[in-house]
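Record type: monomer structure entry
Structure origin: computed from sequence
Chain ID: A
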Amino acid sequence: MHAWPASEVPALPGKGRDLRIHDTATGGRITLDPGPVARIYVCGITPYDATHMGHAATYNAFDLVQRVWLDTKRQVHYVQNVTDVDDPLLERAVRDGEDWTELAERETALFREDMTALRMLPPKHYVGAVEAIPGIVPLVERLLDAGAAYELDGDVYFFVGSDPHFGGVSHLDAEAMRLLSAERGGDPERPGKKNPLDPMLWMAAREGEPSWDGGRLGRGRPGWHIECVAIALDHLGMGFDVQGGGSDLAFPHHEMGASHAQALTGEYPFARAYVHAGMVGLDGEKMSKSKGNLVFVSALRREGVDPAAIRLALLAHHYRSDWEWTGQVLADAVERLARWRAAVSRPDGLSADALVDEVREALADDLDSPAALAAVDRWAARQTSGGGTDEGAPGLVSRTVDALLGVAL
């Protein structure tokens, strides 16, 4: 599966700072110190509706991670998946009388268009769950052979008790886990499981649903968590730098994925940091496909909204915060974009050397994009009042905003 084209990232003078970021597993801020190549895995979409503002906010957060790392002169090995076979996708296809593969391909293509418009840097590897199945089956077999998985009426489940570190990502108690498991695709009430929280690794073929040859597992399709584990292990290996996604993925998805990988390899940890973006709401509720309260990037683009303004609307909120999308949020972003473009359109201006340092420091401090925007606001305000004679300043500001914030002025 191919990703989307990359926009050029301008080189800035000097070198950026190492990223200090909030790690869900430790509950505090840690300084990431990758090697020459920083490794990151971000969970992708289930393509039955793409791309709403909640998606955009999440991928914007991890785009900032990439940009901070690139500014430290590192390379970035970024991997993202597409869950192109899953219950919600199949249910939507049945509801709309559409072939599920055509639905997945259309929505994935639209997602690529949205990411391109928003200047999100693409992953090096963009992998669909379906294409990963040949690599998933052997992992499930290995877990069975190791006693970390078991069969139940033809399905295969992972036993959470096989990983001594289970619970170390989300730090939730058993009852909270059980409730979230039921809410987020699990089946804690199914009789016969060793532990109600045990997630499915391989679902035996169901009538009317797609299935693949699983060798000794029988025909079926993979569970949600093992898909990402297979892709991450294949392209990044254990101990990669950041596992990322929305805060609703901390449990069960990232918790279960970590345990799958740790039980498979006997190594710990799966990822060095677990980083989660907040939820975007609309009309007082989390924006989600199940609720249908969505604002789509593609719809805004069709209405003529500049993608740079959409991106500024996202950047105005700290990535870990939960916030609400409103017309005013977009209006403020449109106005800010106009002010910045007017400021950099002058032939000269106030020195921007300090601004570059301010933006770098803000982003290195747990991706504090609101602080970075405030720094550019201050420069733009002073620029409007005049007095500067630095001919290189407007261009340096434009390159800084492009390189570090992904906004083209």
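Annotation 1: The chain has a mean pLDDT of 96.
Annotation 2: Residues 163 and 185 are 21 Å apart (CA to CA).
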